[in-house]
Structure formats: C-alpha cells, structure tokens
C-alpha cells in the first residue's frame, strides 16, 4: 500500500475514534482544533487522491443539497412493534405469562428506555455502514442512508479489532435532543413556519428531508437497542448490546438486567422520575427477555414479539380550575381561545394559561364555566387541556360558547372555509391586527427597524400617527417626541431605523407585508420569481403556483391580498417612500460600509444563517465575496466542516478565520 493511503487510513481511524469519544462516550480526548486540522488534512488528501474515495469516510458526514426522492427498500427482517401497556399490573401479568410459557426455566429480563423518536434499521457489512432504512410500514421503508450518515453518533466505520460479525443489522431510535428541538422551533416560529409538536415529529420530519446538508444542520442523535443477524457474538440480548457499545454504537447506559418482578417494579419507579433529566424524549420503558433462545421459543404474534412489552409512562397531568376563557386576535385576524387557569405546577413550570386552539376543541372537550380541567405536558412542551373532571362540575354551569364578535373591534366573526378557525374580517380597522402587522413589519427579519415593540406599536396606533405600515414613513422626530416616554434619542433612533429600512432588499419587503401564509422562505421565492412588485401583483394563481414550493393555497392568498384596495394603496405609498420594490440582481444594496474594501471567502456549514444570506450580508455591508483564498482575502467566514484545502491555504497565508457569531457581532457593532 502506498504511503498516502496509509496516511488516509490512519487519519480516518483517528477521526472515527474521536467522533466515537465525542458523540457516543461524551468524553473527547482530541481538541477541536486538532480535530479540524486532521479533518482538513484528510479532506485534502482525499481530494488529491480520488481513487481512495470512501463513502464511509468521516469526511462524508456533511450531507449535500442534492435533492432526490427516497428509494423504497424491503426490510431483510420485518420491523414489528411492541405491545403496549400503561399499567404496572399488566407488566406483572406479562412476566407471569412468560413464566408459564417457559415452564421451569429461569429467565432474566432486560429493562431499557423506550426512546420517543423514529425507528431505523441499519445494515453493516465488514464493519461499514451499508444502508439505513426507515420503518415505513414494517415490511418496507425509505432508504435514508445519506441522511443517517450525517448523525455523528452513528458510526460509519466500526472500531478496529472490536470483533463485529461480517454482516448484521442494528435497530434503534433516531432522536432530536430537547435543546436542538427547542432551538429549531424558535427559529421556525420566527420564520412563520409551522412548529413541530414534539421532538418525535421533528426527528421524523428531519430524517425525511431531501436535503442532507439541512439534516446535518439539525443535529440529530441516535440510540441503538437491537442487534440482529446470523452470527451474533452472544446468545443473549444484554451482552450483544454491550458488544455493540464496544464496536462504537451509542447504547444507552440506562439498561439493566432484572431478575424478578420486584426488580422490574423498582426499575419502573426509578425511571418514572429520572427520565425527566434525560437529554432526549422517552415515552416509556421496554422489557425484553434476555436469552435469545428463549425469545425464539416464545416467538411472535402477527404484530408483536411475545418476548417483549412496552410500559408507557403516564403524561404528567394536573387538575386545576378554569378561571375564564379569553379570546385573542392575531395579526391575521384569527381568534384564539385561551384558558386562564388557577396557577398549577406541572413538570417544573407554573402553568397559568393554555391555548384551546379553536371552537371545535372547546366543543369536543365540552368545557363549562368554572370547570376543573386536566392539564397535561406529555411529549409536547406546551401545556394541553386534555379533559374535564365531570364530578367536580358546578351544577347548572353553562358551556363555554365561542364569541360571535371580535373582542377588539366588535366585527361579526367569519369562519374560515374548511378550517376550525374564526376570523375577524375587519383587517384594516381592527387594532390588534394592525399593531400586529406593524410589529411584524419592523421585525429583524423584515424591515429591521429598531425600537418598536408591542407597546410602542400600540402607542403609535393609539396616537393616530400610524394606522398602517406606510404611515411609519411619515413619522418625524417631532411627532414621536409628542408621545409619552419618548426623548430625542429614542425618537431619533426610530427615525434612523426607518430611513435605513429603505435599503432593505425587496425579498424582505415582501415578507414584511404580512401576506397570509407568506413566511420568510416563501417571500424570497416570490421575490426572485417575480423580480418586482408590479409583476407580483399581476400574477395569476396559475403563474404563482408554478413557482417552486408555492402551492395553490399560498398562490390564492397572494392574489387575494393584492386584490384588496387598501393593500394596493399601502404598496404605492411604500414605493413613494423609497422602499425597494424590485429585486436587485446582485443584491448589492448597501446597508453599511463596514466591509467596504474587504474580500471575504465563505466556507463550511452554518447554523444561524444560510450561506446565501451570508453572501448577501457581505454585499449589503459593502464587502466582496470571493470563492478562493488568495493573498487578497481579508478573512474567511468559516462554518462547521470548512473545506480542508481552504483551511490549509488560509493557515499558510496567515489569513484570519472568523466564525458566524464573530461575523454577526462585527456587523452589529457598526450599526450602533
Ligand atoms: S425493541 C421487535 N427497544 O418502540 C421489537 N423498541 O412499538 C423491536 N422503541 O418501533 C423494538 N425504544 O421505534 C425497542 N428500547 C427499545 C425502544 C424501542 C423505542 C420504539 C421502536 C419501535 C417501537 C415499538
């Protein structure tokens, strides 16, 4: 073997080993810097020696943005599910049943966590990941290998000399850790994208994304809990799990051999509490008969193995009094009923309010005035009303009825066709809708006008100065100073922000308009496809729905929005105020000059903004984008997994490398 190949192999092994220590054992031994340098060297060597390309190399975890639909693959062994129970008694019954079936034989039980994610089957051949398939219908699933490769805790190459069989299957659960889930939902909320209800849906949705680079960004994790194959190292489940750990898989530490019903019950009471401290969602425990021979004897029903049972945790639930139901009006006019509750402690937080979502939910739950309500926090982080304690109902109390008129402006509400929502139709004169739109308009991802929050938006509206977003451009320092709590400085800050917003690119103006269903991403697509506002306003639903990612619902919403005279007038007044109403082909709209004269190279995968957004930011702040590093490069804006060749070159030329936070704070500093 030539020396380059030896070096490549050595680097791959070292990086795999560090990945294992970092993501599986949580105990890294290599510094980040050393890791990055080794990764860079490996990437360079692989690029220079394409004959040594390996799909399982640690360099292959970053994913790609190539879109492709998934291939359906038939499972080598069907993926069955477990029978479920919520009661400890039924777990005892299960154990007694096993006792009867096994006669006099002794048996052990393995207690495990039931992870609440999405299940996966992965085939390994000669120590390398061959394919990863979703459960699908249990018989066949989707080939999501490229996406699974981005999950750092799943080995692409097993640890050398650890004694794994030549070919085997592992099954486990792909999970989105709570912290990642919360950050993702925050970002989605900001972008007006639908939120994931729980980490399970988020993990499943992420695994099915067509763009594996986006999957990599979402930082999934995985626990493996089942080994299948012909030449397994041990004749029992527990030892096989421990062997899997040696090979490099992430196997939970919460696995215990249990010898009798008492130990099973202790395991249940311990984890009922302790599971709340785990970094990933669990919805119960699984009990499996340890011996593989006994498993075989016990066999399967049509759907489940007879040798295992899942015990599901009760979601945390409390009962509390309904004090009142209030109705809130959103920016789009949708009315949301909210239950105001007597404060109650649930999973460590005090719950005072819970959304009742819509009229159907109130009716289905049959909530009456003063009812005692059951509130749950299960897999969902948001408290949910799940029922009424009918025994505690006050005799003669009235059912909660949905309001017929808008609580803010008194308009007769309308029901949205095909939906459970009631809407206030008074879009242009209903105060909370207007102030909601003003707040949205000035938001950081929209026109980015500082100093106007909920309170100031209401103040501006109530003063009569701002009745729609176009009125913002008629504000003056003098007018603002007439308002309570406004001084010269705070007034000047808002006016400066308003003036600066005239440079905000067209795609963000489209987002700022509050067109129903048009979030940040859709706004960009609309802006790029139409090029300017006049075109956009004239497009038909057919033309609009021909745009990538724009369906009929959004297309109709855009057409309806521009058909309204008030909106046409707002657009006209914004145009006259100097707002960008057409796309700037090279998006070199100057926001600041902080980067003027600077040449910047972008490399790697980013978390806070996309590469395109960074490119636009560079141009908007006077900088120049360049794709290759040279002595003219001012600095490299580096994300994760920066290209190795670039890293090496930057080091060689002594060019500064900065990360995204540093870059963003550099821009913000200049704005103050
Ligand atoms: S064993 C033949 N172990 O629960 C049974 N499953 O309804 C193989 N799950 O689809 C599954 N944690 O997605 C097993 N420790 C665990 C588990 C677990 C979660 C999921 C899995 C499966 C479902 C069973």
Question: Could you characterize what this model shows?
Answer:
By secondary structure, the protein is of the alpha+beta class. The protein has 5 domains: 3-62, Helix Hairpins (Orthogonal Bundle), CATH 1.10.287; 84-312, DNA ligase/mRNA capping enzyme (D-amino Acid Aminotransferase, Chain A, domain 1); 317-415, Nucleic acid-binding proteins (OB fold (Dihydrolipoamide Acetyltransferase, E2P), Beta Barrel), CATH 2.40.50; 431-586, 5' to 3' exonuclease, C-terminal subdomain (DNA polymerase, domain 1); 599-671, BRCT domain (Rossmann fold). It contains 24 helices and 22 strands. The longest helix has 22 residues, at 3-24. The radius of gyration is 29 Å and the shape is globular. The site of 2-(butylsulfanyl)adenosine has 16 residues, from strand 3, strand 8 and strand 11.
What's this, in brief?
This protein is an alpha+beta fold and 672 residues long.
SSE arrangement:
Elements: H1 3-24, H2 32-48, E1 72-74, E2 84-85, H3 88-102, E3 109-115, E4 118-125, E5 128-134, E6 140-142, H4 145-148, E7 167-175, H5 178-190, H6 199-207, H7 212-217, E8 221-228, H8 237-247, E9 256-258, H9 261-274, E10 282-289, H10 292-298, E11 308-312, E12 316-329, E13 335-346, E14 349-355, H11 359-365, E15 372-377, E16 384-388, E17 414-415, E18 422-423, H12 431-442, H13 454-462, H14 477-481, H15 488-500, H16 506-512, H17 520-530, H18 533-538, H19 541-545, H20 552-563, H21 565-576, E19 599-603, H22 611-620, E20 624-626, E21 635-638, H23 644-653, E22 656-658, H24 660-671
Helix pairs in contact: 1-2, 2-23, 12-13, 16-17
This protein binds 2-(butylsulfanyl)adenosine.
């Amino acid at each position: 073997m030539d020396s380059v190949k030896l070096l490549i192999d050595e680097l791959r092994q070292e990086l795999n080993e560090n990945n294992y220590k970092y993501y599986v054992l949580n105990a890294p031994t290599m510094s980040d810097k050393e890791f990055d340098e080794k990764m860079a060297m490996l990437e360079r060597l692989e690029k220079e020696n394409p004959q040594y390309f390996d799909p399982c190399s640690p360099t292959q975890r970053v994913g790609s943005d190539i879109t492709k639909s998934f291939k359906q693959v038939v499972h080598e062994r069907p993926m069955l599910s477990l029978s479920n129970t919520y009661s400890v008694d039924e777990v005892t019954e299960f154990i007694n049943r096993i006792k009867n079936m096994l006669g006099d034989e002794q048996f052990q039980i393995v207690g495990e966590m039931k992870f609440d994610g999405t299940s996966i089957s992965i085939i390994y051949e000669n120590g390398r990941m061959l394919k990863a398939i979703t459960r699908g219908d249990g018989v066949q699933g989707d080939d999501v290998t490229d996406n699974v490769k981005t999950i750092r805790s799943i080995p692409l190459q097993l640890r050398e000399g650890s004694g794994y069989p030549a070919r085997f299957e592992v099954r486990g659960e792909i999970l989105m850790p709570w912290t990642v889930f919360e950050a993702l939902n925050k970002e989605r909320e900001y972008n007006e994208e639908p939120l994931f209800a729980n980490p399970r849906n988020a993990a499943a949705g992420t695994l099915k994304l067509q763009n594996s680079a986006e999957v990599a960004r979402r930082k999934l994790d995985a626990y493996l809990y089942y080994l299948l194959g012909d030449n397994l190292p041990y004749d029992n489940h527990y030892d096989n799990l421990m062997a899997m750990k040696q090979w490099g898989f992430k196997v939970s530490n919460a696995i215990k051999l249990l010898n009798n019903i008492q130990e099973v019950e202790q395991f249940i009471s311990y984890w009922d509490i302790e599971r709340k401290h785990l970094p990933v969602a669990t919805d119960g425990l699984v009990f499996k008969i340890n011996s593989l021979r006994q498993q075989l004897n016990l066999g399967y029903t049509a759907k489940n193995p007879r040798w295992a049972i899942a015990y599901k945790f009760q979601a945390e639930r409390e009962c509390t009094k309904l004090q009142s139901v209030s109705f809130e009006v959103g920016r789009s006019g949708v009315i949301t009923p909210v239950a105001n509750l007597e404060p109650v402690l649930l999973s460590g937080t005090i719950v005072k309010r819970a959304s009742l979502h819509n009229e159907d939910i109130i009716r289905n739950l049959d909530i009456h005035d003063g009812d005692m309500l059951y509130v749950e926090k299960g897999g969902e982080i948001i408290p949910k009303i799940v029922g009424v304690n009918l025994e505690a109902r006050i005799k003669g109390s009235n059912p909660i009825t949905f309001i017929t008129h808008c609580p803010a402006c008194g308009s007769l509400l309308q029901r949205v066709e095909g939906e459970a929502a009631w809407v206030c139709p008074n879009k242009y004169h209903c105060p909370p809708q207007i102030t909601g739109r003003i707040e949205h308009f000035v938001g950081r991802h929209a026109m980015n006008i500082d100093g106007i929050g909920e309170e100031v938006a209401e103040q501006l509206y109530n003063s009569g100065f701002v009745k729609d977003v176009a009125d913002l451009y008629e504000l003056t320092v003098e007018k603002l100073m007439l308002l309570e709590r406004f001084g010269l400085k705070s007034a000047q800050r808002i006016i400066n922000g308003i003036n600066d917003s005239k440079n905000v690119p067209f795609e963000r103006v489209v987002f700022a308009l509050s067109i129903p269903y048009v979030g940040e991403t859709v706004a960009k697509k609309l802006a790029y496809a139409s090029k300017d506002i006049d075109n956009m306003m004239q497009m038909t639903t057919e033309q609009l729905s021909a745009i990538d990612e724009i369906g009929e619902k959004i297309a109709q919403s855009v057409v309806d929005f521009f058909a309204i005279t008030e909106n046409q007038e707002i657009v006209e007044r914004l145009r006259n105020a100097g707002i960008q109403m057409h796309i700037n082909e090279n998006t070199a709209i100057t926001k600041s000059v902080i980067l003027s004269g600077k040449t910047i190279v972008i490399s790697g995968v980013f978390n806070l903004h996309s590469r395109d957004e960074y490119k636009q930011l560079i141009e908007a702040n006077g900088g120049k984008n360049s794709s290759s590093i040279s002595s003219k490069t001012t600095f490299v804006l580096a994300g994760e997994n920066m290209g190795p060749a670039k890293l090496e070159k930057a080091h060689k030329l002594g060019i500064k490398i900065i990360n995204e936070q540093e870059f963003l704070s550099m821009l913000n500093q200049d704005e103050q």
